[in-house]
Design a protein that fits this description.
This protein has 534 residues and is α/β, with parallel strands linked by helices. It has 22 helices and 10 strands. The protein has a 5-stranded parallel β-sheet, sandwiched between helices. A 5-stranded mixed β-sheet has the order 7-8-6-9-10, sandwiched between helices. It starts with a strand and ends in a 5-residue tail after the last helix.
């Protein structure tokens, strides 16, 4: 519930507002009255006030003077000004002080009611964000200090291929990382993909919320308590259930139900849409390959969010044909060594041609393994396979080769296309940044940007943060405010028009965002930059 204070030197104006607004609909439990600045400040001394409705022009201290005091003693209070005159100096100062809005008298009660509702919604969102910060910050800081860096590094090294566990070396590697016993364990990975937030978060707040999601995953998905919840170097949240038998139908069904409940709770309590990608039960020696397959599932999912996906539903196939060459070919592709990888492909095809009784199934195995490498490279470098190959004919992505000649031609064509994309054309992030620059006056969502480059929204967010160093929402805010700052400093365009130029039709919100970035109001900045420009 909320509290309100009406301040006006006209008693009938106060009575009219108090009786003309449906306070219960707004969840306002107490409405206080004051007829001058002194009385209003006494109310603030006695109780917390969420919203103040205040006349600007009063004889014993103006509403502007009152707000200056209120900002010091109760900075969370939102203020709606009422005035009989659209006096520019009053309005200018009200905006500088972050007044929520102002209305001209005579007041239309339905308009005032709608304005109060907007202000209370802003208060509610700010309270929820503050509560989230206060609730999770101790846990988040504790996690940053106490989380086993050795365990995190071990799994990240396994997933990236820096550590390759084999039956011969597993015991020594695990003992070195204080993880003895995993060499014989069943490991069932679940990739938790954060696809969108219901509100804009700063980079710091988004990190804290992702920690809250991992904490929730630990409580809800690690039902037996055996396992780890980590964030990989790609920014992916992964739950590793140790000892779960993912092949048993009842256990798999139970895990799917837990994931569905987890998805619902994340939406309800954290305000985010997520999807869970459940892998196959894997040994320590297979887990890196399973992780890459889960990444590919997420990467290729452009449509539905808030879903549970199971790798087992895609079927299984052997990927053994080219495993010794994958890491080499990946490095060659990423470093632009086109001629060397062409020689590698031709050499591998020559080896296959010498094999007696070569089966079509073996060509398909080559194709699948090659395309797994292609998807991994594209995923790692933020490229969309859909966009890359949509206008190409005869590439491996769409065509099953019937002979070695087709296989070689398609493989060579594919590496040429990828080479050109990685080393000759703008990256996905550069294209996203250009799109943002071209649409600064419009609302831009993460889903809209992901659709533009044909990527999964969760993957695009992680890639953007890794490449740019801040979240998409923080980047858009800083770009908008930087350009607004330049326009304010170098022109006489009214600041309200500057705000609209960058998509802010609520001036108070624009002013708060500007102050958040530059620590002064837009008006103060203009005065500092050019005192002669009003």
């Amino acid at each position: 519930m909320y509290t309100a204070l009406i301040v006006d030197d006209e008693i009938y104006a106060v009575m009219g507002i108090k009786s003309g607004i449906h306070w219960q609909e707004l969840q306002v439990s107490e409405v206080y009255e004051a007829f001058n600045m002194r009385d209003a400040l006494q109310v603030f001394e006695r109780t917390r006030i969420d919203i103040m409705i205040c006349d600007i022009e009063m004889p014993k201290g103006t509403g502007i003077e009152l707000l200056e005091r209120v900002n010091d003693i109760s900075p969370d209070t939102e203020t709606i000004f009422l005035t009989a005159h659209s006096a520019y100096d009053f309005m200018k100062r009200a905006i500088q002080l972050d007044g929520f809005d102002y209305l001209l008298k005579p007041i239309e009660f339905d308009v005032l009611q709608a304005t109060i509702a907007k202000a209370l919604h802003a208060i509610k969102e700010e309270r929820e964000l503050r509560h989230m910060r206060e609730h999770y910050k101790p846990y988040y800081e504790l996690w940053r200090k106490k989380k086993s860096l050795i365990t995190d590094k071990f799994w990240n090294d396994v997933f990236s291929g820096r550590i390759v566990c084999t039956p011969a070396n597993a015991a020594d590697v695990l003992e070195e990382h204080d993880l003895s016993g995993l060499q014989d364990a069943d490991i069932l990975p679940v990739l938790v993909s954060v696809e969108s937030w219901q509100r804009e978060f700063s980079t710091r707040d988004e990190e804290m919320m992702e920690y809250a999601i991992r904490k929730g995953a630990s409580e809800m998905l690690l039902s037996s308590g055996n396992g780890e919840v980590i964030q990989t170097r790609q920014g992916v949240n992964v739950v590793l259930l140790v000892g779960e038998d993912g092949t048993k139908e009842d256990t798999a069904h139970e895990l799917k139900l837990r994931c569905e409940k987890f998805i619902q709770d994340c939406y309800t309590y954290f305000g985010c849409k997520i999807s869970c990608y459940i892998g196959n039960r894997s040994s320590l020696y297979e887990i890196a390959d399973t992780y890459r397959q889960l990444l590919e599932m997420e990467y290729n999912n452009l449509n539905k969010s808030n879903q549970v996906y199971m790798l087992a539903s895609l079927g299984s196939h052997s990927m053994k044909t080219m495993i010794p060459r994958i890491s080499t070919w990946t490095l060659l592709m990423e470093h632009g060594q086109l001629e060397e990888i062409r020689r590698e492909i031709r050499g591998r095809i020559a080896e296959l041609s010498d094999k007696p009784n070569l089966l079509l199934l073996e060509l398909e195995g080559f194709r699948r393994e090659f395309m797994q490498m292609v998807h991994y490279i594209l995923h790692k470098n933020g490229r969309s396979a859909f966009e890359l190959f949509k206008d190409e004919e005869g590439v491996l992505l769409y065509t099953q080769p019937r002979n070695l000649e087709q296989l070689e031609a398609s493989a060579l064509q594919t590496v040429q296309i990828i080479h050109d994309q990685l080393h000759l054309k703008p990256s996905v992030i550069e294209r996203v940044q250009s799109y943002i620059q071209e649409h600064l006056s419009e609302p831009i969502t993460r889903e809209q940007l992901a659709g533009f480059v044909h990527l999964n929204p969760a993957y695009l967010s992680r890639l953007f943060k890794r490449e740019v160093g801040e979240s998409i929402s923080d980047y858009m805010l800083h770009v908008r405010m930087s350009q607004a700052k330049d326009l304010i400093a170098t022109s006489s365009i009214p600041i309200s028009d500057v705000a609209k130029t960058f998509g802010y039709h609520n001036f108070s919100h624009f002013s708060k965002m500007f102050r958040k970035v530059y620590h002064v109001s837009p008006q103060e900045f203009r005065l500092q930059s050019n005192p002669n420009v009003l």
